[in-house]
């Protein structure tokens, strides 16, 4: 058993088996919120610059961020404003590709954190602010491992605060049924990305922002329930106010 806060997108199969035994309700734990999130996307591996399909998808993911960060999805997050902290629209502040080092077949979370740190030092990535959120996308065929958990086995993505203090999300390429749930890869990726984005905004230090001890973060409660927004697949998120996934 782990006592770590939940901060992953689980596999689709696992979620269908689960029924929320405890009625969901997020409570605020006095920690940080990302008030006006500044997203920087990092596409790791040369496939993102050499495969026409992946080049296209990377561009589409950036378009997705440009849209969603000023969309009604962000407006919905204002339900979780607290005195002194108000959630506003965010922005995509930049994007980069890196192929150095090349991602191995298995990439550990520590390698993702140190890659971000290295690229900040190098100037490829901007320095972190309290609102900065780095999104790292790994290429097809790369398995991401976080502790005992692995992509396509336990999760389809996660967000966290790095040991060095910055906020980031790791998004493995959805190349398994558990992370596709019958959708095209791009739709699956925008869906899980929206899950992690909303969680990183409302609970950037996992378990220290808006959290539910029984059911996890804002996206966990509604995992694998989607809607279309601006033509994109986004995940439903838990609303305390509506007492439902919206
Ligand atoms: Zn989650």
Observed structural traits:
Collagenase (Catalytic Domain); globular; three-stranded mixed sheet; six-stranded mixed sheet; 246 residues; binds zinc ion; 15 strands; single chain; alpha/beta; 28% helix; 25% strand
Can you offer a commentary on this structure?
- This protein is of the alpha/beta class and 246 residues long.
- It has one domain: Collagenase (Catalytic Domain).
- It is 28% helix and 25% strand.
- 45% of the residues are buried.
- The model has no long low-confidence stretch (mean pLDDT 95).
- Zinc ion binds next to strand 1 and helix 7.
CATH class: Alpha Beta
Structural class: alpha/beta
Helix coverage percent: 25-40%
Uncertain regions: pLDDT < 50 for 5+ in a row?
none
Q: Quick one: overall form?
A: globular
Number of domains: 1
Number of helices: 7
Small-molecule binders here are: zinc ion
CATH architecture: 3-Layer(aba) Sandwich
Rg over alpha carbons = 17 Å
What kind of sheet is the major sheet? Answer: 6 strands, mixed
The name CATH uses for the topology is Collagenase (Catalytic Domain)
**Integer average pLDDT:** 95
Task: Please state roughly what percent of the residues sit in beta strands, choosing from under 5%, 5-15%, 15-25%, 25-35%, 35-45% or over 45%.
Answer: 15-25%
Order of helices and strands: EHEEHHHEEHEEEEEHHEEEEE
Please count the beta strands (DSSP E, at least 2 residues each).
15
For the termini, the CA-CA separation is 30 Å
Summed up:
With 246 residues, the protein is α/β, with parallel strands linked by helices. The chain has helices spanning 12-17, 47-50, 52-68, 72-77, 109-122, 177-180, 185-202; strands spanning 8-10, 27-28, 38-44, 91-98, 106-108, 132-137, 143-146, 149-150, 155-161, 167-171, 210-211, 226-229, 232-235, 238-239, 244-245.
